[in-house]
Design goal:
By secondary structure, the chain is mainly α. The protein has 12 helices and 6 strands. It starts with a helix and ends with a helix.
């Protein structure tokens, strides 16, 4: 009978430990590196996630799952039982936050976004243009900005290495570095995702024929370093002798003009089968392509008249 009573008492204690929780609302807590269970319990009590650290520790040692707590930031849900809290801290399922780098974001804006993320720590330099792969990157509170940037740059290295293996004879680039430069131009010049390979074909055909690329975004890059210019290109900029001026200089500019996404990298390594050498915007984000200058001039006249008539 005494043994049965002890079992019942133990089961009740276990149930109380599993269910007991002091959080009246969701609470975020940070468990520092090297924290013991005792130190973690103190953090939990101070944050209001549990009612008593002493009670929590007693029940944890008697009835809780064995294992050390792991450092990091955790979200303790409203009404979460003490047993569930302990399991969470032992699991290492920390809160993950994200820094978003959209396709075509230049490095100066990547830098500004990292610098403006308040839960990251430490300084970071403006990354080399074209060295960051656009994506969503997870981070935890207190992580170094440099560490997050390192993952972004490692992702780009992996992406270009993998894409390079699938390069086709239609591609005009001969090195991974050149692929990123051309992909950055395609990224800036593509208004509709489905046209990436056609835009890549135009520039690939021009490179192969020794024609200037005549890409407006390259002319703008030395002026804004990738940020929106907010106005039309000036005649003085088109006449400048900048190595980024692809109206005056044949071939690729000396470096990327933004951080291209995977799709643009793949496009320049496998451009569409086309003889197109020209394209002009239609006014709805898409473009019309032409093989000859005569066709192109007709397209330009047509779509300029359309845009003038419709105000687009």
């Amino acid at each position: 009978m005494r043994r049965l009573l002890l079992i019942v008492i133990a089961l009740i204690a276990i149930a109380l430990f599993v269910m007991r929780g002091g959080a009246a609302r969701d609470v975020d807590v940070v468990i520092p590196q090297g924290s013991s269970l005792t130190a973690a319990a103190a953090v939990l009590e101070k944050a209001g996630a549990i009612g008593s650290s002493r009670t929590f520790l007693t029940h944890a040692k008697l009835f809780g799952p064995h294992g050390a707590v792991k450092p990091g930031e955790y979200r303790i849900a409203k009404g979460m039982g003490a047993g569930a809290i302990l399991k969470l801290l032992q699991s290492g399922r920390v809160i993950q936050r994200f820094v978003a780098v959209p396709e075509g974001m230049p490095s100066i804006l990547v830098y500004e976004r990292l610098a403006a993320t308040p839960l990251l720590t430490g300084p970071v330099a403006v990354p080399r243009e074209g060295s960051v792969l656009p994506d969503n990157y997870a981070y935890v509170r207190g992580e170094a900005r440099g560490a997050v940037l390192g993952r972004m740059q490692k992702a780009m290295q992996t992406a270009i290495a993998n894409a390079w293996k699938a390069r086709t004879p239609a591609s005009a680039v001969t090195t991974p570095e050149a692929a990123i430069v051309l992909a950055s131009i395609v990224e800036k010049e593509t208004g509709v995702a489905s046209e990436r390979r056609m835009v890549a074909a135009v520039y690939s055909n021009r490179l192969k024929r020794g024609m200037p690329l005549q890409a407006d975004p390259t002319v703008i890059y030395p002026v804004t370093h990738g940020k929106p210019i907010g106005r039309h290109i000036l005649r003085s900029e088109l006449d400048s002798d900048s190595p980024y001026n692809t109206y005056r200089h044949v071939g690729l500019p000396p470096g990327p003009i933004t951080n291209p996404g995977k799709a643009s990298i793949v496009a320049v390594l496998d451009p569409a089968p086309s003889n197109a050498l020209y394209f002009v915007a239609k006014g709805d984000g898409s473009s019309v392509f032409a093989d000859t200058l005569q066709q192109h001039n007709a397209n330009v006249a047509k779509w300029r008249a359309y845009r003038a008539a419709t105000g687009k």
